Amino acid sequence: MSSLLLLAVGLVVPAVSSAMAQTYPSQPIRFIVGFSPGSATDLVARYLAEDLRQRLGQPVIVENRPGANGSIAATMVARAAPDGYTILISNASTMTTNHLLYKDIKYDPLVDLAPVAMVISAPFVLVVNPSNPKTKSVATFADFVKLATSKPESIDYGTGGIGNLAHLSFELLGTTIGARMVHVPYAGAAPAQAALLSGQIDAAFDTPNALPLIQSGKLKALAVSTTARWRDLPDVPTVAEAGYPSFATSFWTGAVAPAKTSQPVIDTLYKAIVAATEDPKTKALLLGQGNIEVLDPGGFAEKIAQEGALNAEVLKKAGIEKQ
User: Fold this and answer.
1) What is the CATH number of the domain that holds 168?
2) What pLDDT tens digit does each residue of the chain (323 aa) get?
3) Contact (CB, 8 A) for 204 and 157
4) Which residues have C-beta within 8 Å of that of residue 53, sequence separation ≥ 6?
5) Bridge partners (DSSP) listed for residue 62
6) What is the residue range of 66's domain?
């Protein structure tokens, strides 16, 4: 290829990217969610979709594709055209643990998906059902530890799937308090919550959207997983405060696009998401799911890589091998 032709190509590519930025979006955008309706990830997606629909002037449609801890949705987005019209609204586990846990995973989060923005970070809340005969006398985290350590596998806990961060958090908790508990995976956090309410399981690390159930007395909050107490549960201690200072976990929700999506398109989405988090109405809704903690594409990519490395260590210590 001649130097003149190379120069011409070099001039055309930026021009095309600039044109894309000026015309994007020109058709509906799909937000793909790898978990069931009503989950924390789903709610964040719907709040953003409603805001961006007005902000970007195009329909933003939320599609739930639950299964395999978000892998089905992530694979779908990884294989989609990199044009900004198919976006994954993901939780942390889909991007930082699945590739460590599943042998047949069909996407590499660090290669096949391009970070757009982290939006929310939040604690897990350790909850039990006070109507469950096994846990009705559990009023504090110390009571839970006593029950969990009374004999092996005395607690059945539910999560949104194998390798979900709630699963890893329970594995870390079991190691921390010296208890072996039984994992019962579900196809999302919402079914796990329903199982807890019906007494099928004994405990869960739920998300802040469980607050109405906690306030109504249907669930009992024992501890939060982060190093600081949750603003809406000021009387509930952290696990660290309850005597286990080394314990701390959290989760996040963010947006990622297919790899090779042009930077101007990613920038447009990022700026729209930032504006959404600053809108009073949307901000209030998002705060119900966690702390608003927006990271730009570069910072988000670094966080995904760092947490993937940390989760690999947790899986190794827990003896969880690829399935």
Assistant:
1) 3.40.190.10
2) 455 555 555 555 554 545 555 799 999 999 999 988 988 899 999 999 999 999 999 999 999 998 888 999 999 999 999 999 999 999 999 999 999 988 889 999 999 999 999 999 999 999 999 999 999 999 999 999 999 999 999 999 999 888 788 999 999 999 999 999 999 998 778 889 999 999 999 999 998 889 999 999 999 999 999 999 999 999 999 999 999 999 999 899 999 999 999 999 999 999 999 999 999 999 999 998 999 999 999 999 999 999 999 888 888 877 877 87
3) yes
4) 59, 60
5) 31
6) 15-122+251-318
